[in-house]
Each structure stands twice: as C-alpha cells, then as structure tokens.
Amino acid sequence: MQSTRLTLMCHARTVAQKLGRFPTDEPLELSGQSAMDLPRARFKGTPRLLCGPELRARQTAGLFGSGVEVVPALRDCDFGRWTGARIDDLRKSEPDMLQAWLNDPDSAPHGGESVVQLGERVAAWLTTLEATPGHIVAITHPFVIRAALTQALQATAFNRIDVEPLSAIELRFNGCWRLRLIGTDLEEIQ
User: Fold this and answer.
1) Could you give the CA distance from residue 99 to residue 88 in angstroms, rounded to a whole number?
2) 72: closest CA among 125, 20, 35, 29?
3) Where in the chain are the domains?
4) What residues does 132 pair with on adjacent strands?
5) Judging by DSSP bridges, how do beta strands 4-10 and 168-173 pair with one another?
6) pTM: predicted TM-score of the whole model, two decimal places
7) How far is CA 47 from the centre of its chain?
8) Which SUPFAM superfamilies does the annotation name (predicted)?
9) CATH architecture for segment(s) 4-79+113-180
10) Which of 64, 67, 136, 149 is the most exposed place for a label (fewest CB within 10 A)?
C-alpha cells in the first residue's frame, strides 16, 4: 500500500502579518526582486500542487510551479468582522471577546468561523486524502496548518503552534497520520 505524503507550506509574508492584522485577501509582500530570491523547491518526482483560494496562497503556489489546483477547503479561517483589524486594537476595544476566542475553540465572537469549525473543515479534507497515494504539496495559511497538525496529533495545542511564513511541515498517512518536520532549507524536499 502506497502512503499519502502531504507537505503543508505556509504562504509567503503579507503586509497584514507584518502589521499584526487579521488577514484580508491581500497580496504577498514581495517585490519583483525578492520574489526572484525565494528558494525554489525541487520536489522529488512530480507532486500534486494545491493551494487555498486567497491571493496570497495562489501567488505563493505560483512561485513553486504551474498547474496549481485551488482547493476551497484550504481557505483561511473566516475571521468575520475582525477581517483586517489589528490584533492590538482588539486587545483594547474588545479584550473580553478576544480572550474568549483565544481560550474557547467553540467561540466565534467575530461572527466568522470558530477554531472547532475550522478543524472540522480541515479534518474532512484530510479524510479525502487518505485514499490518495503519492505526494501532495498544499500552500495554505497558518490557521489551516495548525488545524491539520491538531487533527494529526489529536491534541488541543492549537494556540501553541506557531507557523512562520514559507514554513512547511509534512504529514504522511499510512494507516494513521504522522507528522514529519522538515528543515528550513527548501532547496530540495524529498
């Protein structure tokens, strides 16, 4: 039985991340020159390349290859009315709601998606991959990667996982999901 190999990669940095804002559908914070300086991943074989529908995910995926499949399940968490808001501003204007959201994964005071709902969406997507052997590379968002890790680890450590821009983790399914951390040198991911 051939196993499923899933490499999850976070999109490149955006201005919203730099400014501590909840994301919008913003582009990458890359000039033409810095885009050229990004390490090009060379994957062994020809992996299936997927990405979330947001501009930042599609732009990042485009840096790593063509023939990208946009997958709605890889979309970022819906932050509702907090979309575009600065986290520091919310700490001042809505501290109780922000704290409730951070402490309670069922909470969605912003009117969008709760962490539990995001986890259910990502878990359903992971289930569809269990019968898909081969290597899949998915360019997505920190929250989606956290949810996938939480599902794979069956843990409640969602808010204790940091996902840096352009970081990547790999999940393999061969009877059960296993986490494989890969180095920061993206020159060759095997």
Assistant:
1) 12
2) 125
3) 4-79+113-180
4) none
5) antiparallel
6) 0.83
7) 18
8) Phosphoglycerate mutase-like
9) 3-Layer(aba) Sandwich (3.40)
10) 67
Nearest to 5 by CA among 61, 42, 44, 32: 44
Q: How many CA atoms lie within 13 A of 74 on its CB side?
A: 29
Each residue's pLDDT expressed in tens, for the chain with a length of 190 residues: 688 999 999 999 899 988 999 999 999 987 654 555 554 556 677 889 999 999 999 999 998 888 899 999 999 999 999 999 999 999 999 999 999 999 999 999 999 999 999 999 999 999 999 988 999 999 999 999 999 988 888 766 777 777 888 888 888 888 888 877 664 444 444 4
Burial of 7 (C-beta count, 10 Å sphere; 0-12/13-18/19+):
buried
> Among candidates 163, 147, 152, 162, which has minimal Cα distance to 130?
152
Chain position carrying tokens 């040198």: 185
- Spatial CB neighbours of 169, under 8 Å, sequence gap ≥ 6: 7, 8, 145, 149, 179, 180, 181, 182
11 to each of 60, 122, 181, how far by Cα in Å? 5, 17, 17
